[in-house]
Known about the structure:
Shape of chain A: globular
Largest sheet of chain A: 8 strands, mixed
CATH topology of the largest domain in chain A: L-amino peptidase D-ALA esterase/amidase
EC number (chains A, B): 2.3.1.35, 2.3.1.1
Oligomer: homodimer
Active site (chains A, B): 235 (nucleophile)
Structural class of chain A: alpha+beta
Strand content of chain A: 15-25%
Keywords (chains A, B): Acyltransferase, Amino-acid biosynthesis, Arginine biosynthesis, Autocatalytic cleavage, Mitochondrion, Multifunctional enzyme, Transferase
Site (Involved in the stabilization of negative charge on the oxyanion by the formation of the oxyanion hole) (chains A, B): 155-156
Number of domains of chain A: 2
Site (Cleavage) (chains A, B): 234-235
Amino acid sequence: xxxxxxxxxxxxxxxxxxxxxxxxxxxxxxxxxxxxxxxxxxxxxxxxxxxxxxxxxxxxxxxxxxxxxxxxxxxxxxxxxxxxxxxxxxxxxxxxxxxxxxxxxxxxxxxxxxxxxxxxxxxxxxxxxxxxxxxxxxxxxxxxxxxxxxxxxxxxxxxxxxxxxxxxxxxxxxxxxxxxxxxxxxxxxxxxxxxxxxxxxxxxxxxxxxxxxxxxxxxxxxxxxxxxxxxxxxxxxxxxxxxxxxxxxxxxxxxxxxxxxxxxxxxxxxxxxxxxxxxxxxxxxxxxxxxxxxxxxxxxxxxxxxxxxxxxxxxxxxxxxxxxxxxxxxxxxxxxxxxxxxxxxxxxxxxxxxxxxxxxxxxxxxxxxxxxxxxxxxxxxxxxxxxxxxxxxxxxxxxxxxxxxxxxxxxxxxxxxxxxxxxxxxxxxxxxxxxxxxxxxxxxxxxxxxxxxxxxxxxxxxxxxx
Amino acid sequence: xxxxxxxxxxxxxxxxxxxxxxxxxxxxxxxxxxxxxxxxxxxxxxxxxxxxxxxxxxxxxxxxxxxxxxxxxxxxxxxxxxxxxxxxxxxxxxxxxxxxxxxxxxxxxxxxxxxxxxxxxxxxxxxxxxxxxxxxxxxxxxxxxxxxxxxxxxxxxxxxxxxxxxxxxxxxxxxxxxxxxxxxxxxxxxxxxxxxxxxxxxxxxxxxxxxxxxxxxxxxxxxxxxxxxxxxxxxxxxxxxxxxxxxxxxxxxxxxxxxxxxxxxxxxxxxxxxxxxxxxxxxxxxxxxxxxxxxxxxxxxxxxxxxxxxxxxxxxxxxxxxxxxxxxxxxxxxxxxxxxxxxxxxxxxxxxxxxxxxxxxxxxxxxxxxxxxxxxxxxxxxxxxxxxxxxxxxxxxxxxxxxxxxxxxxxxxxxxxxxxxxxxxxxxxxxxxxxxxxxxxxxxxxxxxxxxxxxxxxxxxxxxxx
Lengths: 466, 466
C-alpha cells in the first residue's frame, strides 16, 4: 500500500526510498502495521476525560488516501476553557492564524471542538487558505449548533490548498462517529498522523488538593511528529483535554509552563514549522471547585500534572523520530543560567555529528564537547565574545546508563578519561541513553531529548514531499 | 588499504560502514585514488609564490598509517608577515592556543614556517598537549635556525596526545624534502587531509596597481575539510602564501575581510571545531613597494585578490562535503541588513530537511521557506519577537540554474507558483544549483555554500572517530 501511495504522489522519478529498497509508510500505519519495536508505546486502553468525545474518519485529503483516517475531531459536550501555543515561524499556516485569532476573540472561553486534518498543511496558501480554515471551523460549528467554538489544525504538504469541499462535506460524519471509548480516541490519534509510525496517545487520572480522593479527574492527549526530533518542518501537533474546571485566564500560563518543559525541549519553537500547535482544553465536566487563582494549591497541582503529562507526550515524538534507533536525553547541569543550559543542550541535541555518532554507537565525547564549545559563541562575522558560562577546566561529560548501572565518565574537569570502550559499547547498545554535561559554573540545569541520525532518516527525507 | 586502517583503529565492533558495504577512506587518497568526479578539482600544475617551499612526509601520526603523508611543512626563505583566523570554540586545541600567542608576541612579523600534522588534533590534551605544540614548533625553528618563527596546526582525533617524539624526529626530514615544484605543493596539500577525498590546492598570479605588469605576484594556498559543509567538528585548516610585500599590521584585516566572505560562508566560526585555523603569510620575495597603508590602491587590490582566492579555496571544501552529491549556493537578497541575510542563508544552508530534499532532487520550496521563517525567531522559552526582516507577502524563492537557462520561480510574493516539476527535476539533476531567496525588505544580500545530506554522510559520520 505504501508503495502505491508513493507512486501516486511521485510519478516523475524514482526516489532514494525505492533505490535503497526501504520504503517508509507516508501515512499513519493501520493498527497491525506498527513496527514491532514501537508497539509498546501504543496504549491498549485508557481513561478519558468526561464530556469529551473523539473520532477519526477517512476523507481522502490526499487524493490517493482511501485507507487512513485523515480528519480528527475532539469535541466537548460543555464549553471549554482553552489555550494554545503556536509556532513562531514567520510563515504561519492559515489554521494557525485562524485559531490564534479565535482564541483571542473568545478570551480563551467557549470552545467546544478541535478539528484537525492531516495530508495538507494549508500553509502558504494566501487568503484562500484562510477562507478554507474558516470554512472548516464553520462546518464544525454548524454540526455543534454553536458559533465560533472550533479550533482547527492542519498538517501535511505546504503550498497546496485543502480539498475543502470534501472536508466540509465530511464534517457531519466526523460528528456522527464521535465516541468516548479507547478505540475512538486511538482512531482520532491516528487521524492526525503523517510520517509517524505509530499513533501517540496518553491518558491518566489525577486528584486535586481541594477535592482530594472524592473526585477523580482525567486528562488525555495526543500528539504527532514532527518526524525529526528538531521538527523544523514536519508539523508537531498536540491536543490535551481534561475534565477539571479551570478559569479561562489560567489556561495560557498553565500550558506555557508545560510546553516550555516538554515540547519546547525538542526545540519545537526554536526550529519550528509553519503549523506547530499544541492546544489545551478544560471542560470542568468532573466537577469540583473552579481553579481560578494562579499559584493556588489546585493550580500548582494541575500545572505539575499537565507538565508531566506533556513530557510523556513529547517524548513519544522523539521515540518516533524519523529513522531513529535511539532515545537520548541531553542533560546540561551546573550551569550559570537555565538559558545557557538550554542553549547548550539544544546545540548538542541537534548536532549532526553527535547524532550520527550515536547511530554508529561511537562513544565520541569529542563531538559532544565540540558542540558544547560552539553553542554560545558569536555568529560568523561578529566579534569573539567571552562566554564565561563554559570553562574547559570545569567541564565534565558522562554517559548515564538507563539500566541503573554506574555512570561512565568520558571527560573529567576538562581532561579526557581513559575510556573503557567495551563498557561504552555496552551502554551505547541500549535504546535509551543520557548524556550528562556538567559545566561547573553554576547551579541551573536543562534537559533536551533527541534521537540519532540514521540512513533511514536520509531515505525518508530525501523522498518525502512535505 | 582503507579497510585495513579501519580495522586497526576500530577493532571492537563492526560499524555502519562495513554493514552497508560502503567504506570511505579515512585518510587522504593517493593521487590515483581520487574519485573520478572530483579529479577536475585537483590541479595538475601551478604557479607558486617565490621564496616559499613545501613538503609533505609520512610520519605515522596514526599508528596504522604507513602510506599517506601526514606532516606538512610550508617554509619561507625570508621572514614573513603573518596572520591567522582561529576557531571561536571554547575548547581550543593546543596548536590554536600556541599559534595565537606566537603571532601576538611576534606582532604578526618574523614568521618563517607553518608545520601541520593530520591524524591527531592535539585538542583537549591539557598542559601536556600545549607542551607538544611547543615541541613541534621548536623542532621546526631548530631546523630553520630561527627562534619563534613557526606556526603549528593539527587536525584529527580529539583527546589523544600527539606521538610527539615521532613528529619531532621527522621534522628535519620535512625540511630536507622541501621544494617549490607543483608536486611538492600537492604532496603538502595531501598531508593536511583527513576524510577529504581529494587534496585542495590553488595558485594564481596577480599584479598590483603600483607596479603594474612589471611585477608578477603569486599567491598559493591549500585547505582541508571540514568534511561537513558546516564543519562543526572535522577541522577546517587553510594556509595561504603570497610573495607580495605586506606590512605586518595589515595582515589581520586583509585576512579577516577574505575569511568573512569565504570560509565564514561555510559558517566556519559559527559552528566551529576545536582546531579551525586559516593562516596567511606574505614574504615580499617578489619585490615592489611595501603595502603599508590600509585602503591604498595596492591594499584594495590585494584584498580583492585574496578574497576571491579564499572563496575558491573555501568552495573546494564544499565540493568535498562528506557524501555530497551537490554544490548549492544559497543567496538571500533584498534583505534589510547583511547580518539578517547571512543568518537566513546560514539557516537554510544547514537545515537537514533542505539538505535531504536536495539529495532527493525534490523541488521542496516549502522546506526552504520554512527554514527562512524560523531563522530569525527567538529561542525557545523567550518571547515572540517581531522579525520585521521577513514579510511573507514580499518573499520570493527561485532556483537559478547554473547552465544559464531561465530562473525557475517557486514562490512569488508569498504565493506558490504552479511549478513545472519536469523543469524542476531537470535543474535538480545538475551538480550545481543556486537557491535564491528575495526578501523584498531591503537591499543587502549574503551568500552561503552548502551541499546535500546523503546516505554516505551517515555512513561516514556514524563510523569515524574524530
